[in-house]
Model the fold of this input.
Amino acid sequence: MKLAVFDFDSTLMDGETIDFFAEALGFKEEVVAITERAMAGELDFYASLVERVALLKGLPYKKVEEICETLPMMNGAKEVVRGLKERGYTIVCFSGGFRSATEPACKALGIDADFSNFLHADEGVLTGAVGGEMMYSDAKGDMIVRLQNLLKVDRKDTLVVGDGANDLSMFSHADTRVAFCAKPVLKEAATHCVDIKDLREILKIV
Done:
C-alpha cells in the first residue's frame, strides 16, 4: 500500500476557502493579508487561524455551504486522484481549513478521507469560533504518522503535496515531497517543485 496526502487550500482547491468567506462579508483583503503571512511561516498558524475565523462571526452557515459548493478545484485535481489510485495509492486530504469545504470536494474528487477543522455555528450563524484536527502547525505531521501506523505504510511509500508553512510538519515524514506553487519555506523542504497550476504534473514524479 502507498499513501498520498494532499493539502486542500491552494493545492487541491484553487484559492483559500477562508478568503471566499471573507469576501462575502466584505473584508477579504484583511483576511488575505493574514493568510499570506501564515502560509509564509511568518505567523503562528494556530493564532492566525483563530484571528481569521473570529472575523467571520455573523456569516450565515447557509452562505458557508453555498460558497463551499462552488469552490474552484485546481486544474488536474480529478486526474491526479484517478492516476494515483491507478498506481495503488490511498489518498487523503489534510486541511488547516474547514470540513464544510473539504468534505464535499473530497467526495466529488474520490478522495478516501479528509481531516480538517470545524466552524462553530449557533442558530445557523457563525460564532467566530473554530475547532478540529488541524488547528496547529504540527497537526499534519502528527496525523500522517498515525495514518502510516494504521495503514502500515512506510515513509518511502508516502507522497505529500502542499503549498504553505503548515505543510512542513507532514513533509518531515515522507520521502516524496512536492511543493506545489509553494512558498519558499516549503520549497526548501521539498524533493520536487511544481510551479505551474496543474496537479497532473505530479503523475510525472511518482
The first helix runs from residue 17 to 25. The chain has nine helices and seven strands.
